[in-house]
Amino acid sequence: MAENENTLTWFAQLAVAPPQRAPRLTGDKITLPQSALEQLLAAAPLQAVPNSSNARVQHSDTFDPFNPHTFAAESRARQQIEQRQQQLPHPLTFRIVNPENGRFVYAGIREFSAPENEVALSSLLRESLEISDDDFTTPETQESEEVPDMEVDGVEGNGHQTPTPPTIPTTSTPAGPRVTVHAKQLPKGTYVRLRPLEAGYDPEDWKALLERHLRDNFTTLTVGEILTVPTSRTESFRFLLDKVYPEGEGICVVDTDLEVDIVALSEEQARETLQKRLERAARAPGTTAGSSVGGVLTLGENVAAQVLPGENVDYELRELTKHEGTLRIELLTDDPTVSLFASPLSARQRGRPRRDMHVWGDFSAEGSKKFKIRPTNIALEGAESIYISAYAEIEDTEDESSQRVPVKYNLRISIDDSEDGAEAEAEDDEHEPDDVQCQNCRRWVPQRTLVLHENFCLRNNIFCPQCHNVFQKRSPEWQNHWHCPHDSSHGTDAASKIHHDSIFHNNYECTDCSSNFEGLPALALHRTNECPGKLIMCQFCHLIVPQKGDSDPDFFDPEVLVSGLTPHELVDGGRTTECHLCGKIIRLRDMNTHLRHHDLERLSRPAPRTCLNQNCGRTLSNTGNKSLGLCNICFGPLYVDTHDPEGKALRRRIERRYLSQMMTGCGKAWCQNEYCKNGKQKRQSAPEAATMSVAEIMKVTRPLVDALNVKPEETNTAPFYFCTDETGQHRRNLADMIYAEGTTGDGDKAYDMAWCVAGAEAAGGDLEKTREWLAKWAPSRGETVR
Questions:
Q1: Which residues on adjacent β-strands are paired with residue 662?
Q2: Where is the Ubiquitin-protein ligase E3A N-terminal zinc-binding domain (predicted)?
């Protein structure tokens, strides 16, 4: 009984939703109706509240431990709180049984959003339960919504009658097969043994792939079922779940360390796998029988390489900022099955170029495959580099050995500003003045031999009016010569016709959105532009994601068109964050505009007015003497409460302060004032050089005092050289250092001295905070409002 009280017991018989209503379910995921969640919560076991925390919490309004009535009320309140502590197990797992054939499988919950009396199963679960799509074609009618009594599979037999599963209320019963869903908690798995159903696997390549596949798609694993792991967009590998620990029908793979062991299904399969691995190792990239490795290319480099049919050799060109001319990429080969592709690496293009996904490509059957990329090409906007790929088509031949012979080619990248066709036209126009053009082969021949040439040419040669090529009448090239009725392509053998039709006129399906297109160029254009599954680097979440999700708006949504963002970025940019400058809550997609307003405000701000004391690092606040241009710290020693309309007494006080500084000094250890005895001794190597007579001092200070405008109604602009406190001196030194950094050409921004002083004051004398404040709030020299 104690064990049953902590076990979740729930089961129901539900109709399976049609496959078209469960397209997003993968792995072992199911969806249940909302009423199933309510029933599960009602059947969830109680979770007791610890006494230590319960004793410190008062749940009733008037609790008195010495009053028996309030003490009883508190006890009842705590019991009600304990009754509300009903929690579902995590993770929530189910055992699904098909009563028609007795097959069962374990599954994890995706969400509770299915219609009433229905359960949506993934394709893997339907296959495990042997439920085919044909079972949903004929609607089943049921007159009663009650579920008949049945023997429920998986309930321990103890001689008692199995209870009837509860009926979930509904207005109409859907057609289709029905299954019984049990709430069944599985133990955490520690070990699983997989047996591949096909030869050629490599256990070392499956560790990361299996870990990612199980984490994203599975909550449980059922013994005896088939685990299909995709290796690419079109290929997959299948494993048999042979054994698990703890032993039983299944295990839970969430929040556990799972050891995976891959064992061959039989000795014959192991030998075949070993043979395939050896063959694959012999054809590995970089070997004599395999494709070349590829790598990083430089401008002007000529690469001699080879590629196996059906494989790609990838290169990367990173020198995009070092040239301004037209980029010419050319591939030379004798095999017409080799194609050349290229794509930029940018925020909107993240994939390697392939035959069905590229920005630039050349499928031509000629020996030279080339294309030019101008620096003004819109596809290069924001590109970090250019990916280049050489690919060899697989020919339809019965000889498998010939399909595994690498094809050699030469790849060359250069800068070419010449115009296409200029040299060819010049060569065609070169002929002698007395030459005459043959009407059959269009060649220029001397006039004296025209009759003989035409007699021979008309008997043996034939001119094709479509491609303007000349063939011998009895040659195989003319017998197999063809022209495509859909475009201007042509060739001289049946293989080239098949190759052309397979590339340009066969129908291909997009692997990301299931759209159909005629020809690989149209499919490649779709996959690099408007395909929802095209991978991009989101500028808000900084992850490589498809540019349009299932719940994202359409590409033709007005907001998507106006914003210039992809559907994913439009939705992801709707999240909010705090502006690091003003603290306001701003949407991510509006942050750039918001920061431009801050930038406009920064550039429009007037420069702060600083204290005219050249040793002080403060700005003029509401206190101090603004007409004289001194802060309250520097003006304090000069202040007297007397009537001085002409400022004569103030001028005498300023002169006496200069005399006192230069004769006796201020006595401050931090002073660096050149008009102070202490500061001058620190600046000069000989301390006795700072000693001056009164006449010499007056000769130095008289020009400083005479330049001052001390009348109260006028504003002074002449500088002062007073000794100041340690804080003001430190800020001034910091401002001088930052100001000097901007004038030495070392890469730092140049700010006016007034902004440097304001930054040092706002940062409290901290160097890094001063630089940060200047970058946020101060305009640099030469920076204007645009």
A1: none
A2: 656-694
Closest CA relative to residue 629, chosen from 642, 618, 644, 643: 618
Closest CA to 106 of 221, 188, 22: 221
Is cis: bond before 637, omega within 30 of 0? no
**Degrees (nearest 5) of the Cα angle 176, 179, 182?**
155
Predicted model pTM: 0.64
Q: Are residues 7 and 128 in the same domain?
A: yes
The residue among 602, 634, 605, 594 whose CA lies nearest residue 716 is 634
User: Are 25 and 172 in a shared domain?
Assistant: yes
pLDDT digits (tens, 9 = 90+) for 488-529: 888 888 888 888 888 899 999 998 888 899 999 999 999 999
**Tens digits of per-residue pLDDT, 208-252?**
777 778 888 889 988 888 888 877 666 677 888 888 998 888 999
Determine phi and psi for 513, rounding to 5 degrees: -130, 5
**Domain shared by 173 and 235, yes or no:** no
DSSP assignments along 312-354, one per residue: EEEEEE---TT--S-EEEEEE-S-TTEEEEEEEESSS--SPPB
For residue 741, give the amino acid letter: E
Between CA 221 and CA 188 the distance in angstroms is 11
Residues 41 and 57 in one domain: no
pLDDT beneath 70: ranges in the chain: 1-6, 23, 46-86, 137-175, 199-207, 232-235, 265-266, 269-270, 273-284, 286, 321-323, 396-403, 417-430, 622-624, 684-690, 743-748, 784-786
Is 237 in the same domain as 320? no
Q: Is residue 321 part of a domain?
A: yes
Q: Does 626 fall in a domain?
A: no
CATH of the domain at 238: 3.10.330.10
Residue ending a domain, among 380, 399, 424, is 424
The answer on 761 and 651 residing in a single domain is yes
Distance separating alpha carbons of residues 629 and 635, to the nearest angstrom? 9
Contact 560, 570 (CB under 8 A): yes
* 91: preceding bond cis by omega (within 30 degrees): yes
